[in-house]
């Protein structure tokens, strides 16, 4: 079953909301009001690890090592300006079998940008990533989850599928490995109860600069994979997937 949740016929609902309501709703990661986006599938055993704001020389290589050790593939939404600084890291991510997606060139808040600027941010990042990797980019995640219908249209116009998430690691907060894990476990359990796969938002970088420390995220991922892939009598059928399995 495709993971794209059908666009909510919500145009009239959206129009009926106050402006503040629309702004709020378009930031809520599982809202479909601004247009269709990929979130997760209906197999509750499927979990996608997604990492935004890299590549980052302070965490991406370590994260690649952890993922390789567990034999798991993930989805990385790269910021163009950082990929330009470290194209070797972006190439390593792809060469290791992960997906590289578009997270804009400079990580602006797209909902306050002009349609022309939005298109430029997406097109420039696509061109750069395709130049670095030699492969077409298929997926896009809006910075901060901020989107308007024209943001989604610009993405679709470039052949990009917008991807949001339904579990937030909050790994930008100083909550440590245990705090990140608690957020992930709670979110996964919630989705499982609702028969949904889990799309985990994490960060291997920080949007303000290259070199942001993200080792708590790397350690949390290591622990999550160790726990969820541990062979045992009650081993679940948990499968770590990349977001393309949910694309129709
Ligand atoms: Zn970001």
Keywords:
single chain; 248 residues; alpha/beta; TIM Barrel; 9 helices; 8 strands; binds zinc ion
Explain this structure.
The protein has 248 residues and is an alpha/beta fold. The protein has a single domain, classed as TIM Barrel. The chain is 41% helix and 13% strand. It has helices at 11-16, 19-27, 60-70, 80-85, 87-95, 115-133, 149-157, 176-193, 215-228; strands spanning 46-54, 75-78, 99-102, 139-140, 161-162, 167-168, 198-203, 239-241. The strands form two sheets. Strands 1, 2, 3, 6, 7 and 8 form a six-stranded parallel beta sheet that branches. It has a two-stranded parallel sheet with strand order 4-5. Helix 7 links the parallel strand 4 and strand 5 (161-162). Helix 3 packs parallel to helix 9 (215-228) and helix 6 packs parallel to helix 7 (149-157). The termini are close together. The relative contact order is 0.22. The model is unreliable at 4-25 (pLDDT under 50). It binds zinc ion (ZN). Zinc ion binds at residues 52-53, 103, 107, 143, 207.
Q: How many discrete structural domains?
A: 1
Mean pLDDT: 88
Helix-strand makeup class: alpha/beta
CATH topology: TIM Barrel
List the uncertain runs: 4-25
Distance between the termini: 8 Å
